[in-house]
Amino acid sequence: xxxxxxxxxxxxxxxxxxxxxxxxxxxxxxxxxxxxxxxxxxxxxxxxxxxxxxxxxxxxxxxxxxxxxxxxxxxxxxxxxxxxxxxxxxxxxxxxxxxxxxxxxxxxxxxxxxxxxxxxxxxxxxxxxxxxxxxxxxxxxxxxxxxxxxxxxxxxxxxxxxxxxxxxxxxxxxxxxxxxxxxxxxxxxxxxxxxxxxxxxxxxxxxxxxxxxxxxxxxxxxxxxxxxxxxxxxxxxxxxxxxxxxx
Amino acid sequence: xxxxxxxxxxxxxxxxxxxxxxxxxxxxxxxxxxxxxxxxxxxxxxxxxxxxxxxxxxxxxxxxxxxxxxxxxxxx
Lengths: 247, 76
What we know:
The complex is a heterodimer.
Chain A: E1 11-15, H1 20-31, E2 35-40, H2 43-52, E3 59-62, H3 68-77, E4 81-86, H4 101-124, E5 128-137, H5 151-171, E6 177-183, H6 198-206, H7 216-227, E7 238-241
Parallel strand pairs in A: 1-2, 1-4, 2-3, 4-5, 5-6, 6-7
Chain B: H1 3-12, H2 36-50, H3 56-61, H4 65-74
């Protein structure tokens, strides 16, 4: 069947794959024919994700990506990949006067330093095939949207978008493409149970022209486009997927 | 944890409302300066000062400052 978005035969590494956008992306990539390597910290949930994948050549590697040793161990487990989805991330709501260095470190370690170091090691050790595609899961937060109390998280995502563009230029000679997807609010654990009340979420949702928050698959489909050869001429791009909220 | 200190920390999150306005029985949502950002600041203050993580719905459940004080106490 004709399908320019196919991921048939591509090896794709996905971080943060045990829940939310990462888990859904792993499932969808496997349905598109990819051999998926999933990684996360929680063994039980990661195994569950592995069992949800299509096909028999998928595998999982447990890793705490903020730990350099475990990061290097993960890279050792990779023979080569054609696609990388950097999805592991953490949210935080903290008004500026309370945003201590400690909080910035906590969020930047997970959202910025870990994915950037993973990409660096994969590039340095030449594990990314020619014509491979890297997708950072960023956010509209810190890039096009600046909601109150979201400064620490937003700054980590702005740093990701900036680094993505530098990498897009520097890795272009290797024919490696680097892009971000920038979701609005998506129904995952990352946005649940925090400082924002259900009532405030309902009000916020009303601001979305499409009148709903995103679902993980809304984001996974955008990631699939960026991983596939259909986007062969797309690099250095931030793909906003947000139900129109930033219009 | 003393209610007197709690009221002081609560009042510190406001810039234009005089400290004399704040008492245990203050209905904080009726204050003109009350905003969603101040609500987030109260949550951050409680985390910093009392090591208690409040949720947005905890703030919603409280009407007066002492209501919130009691919610924080149950979570300590």
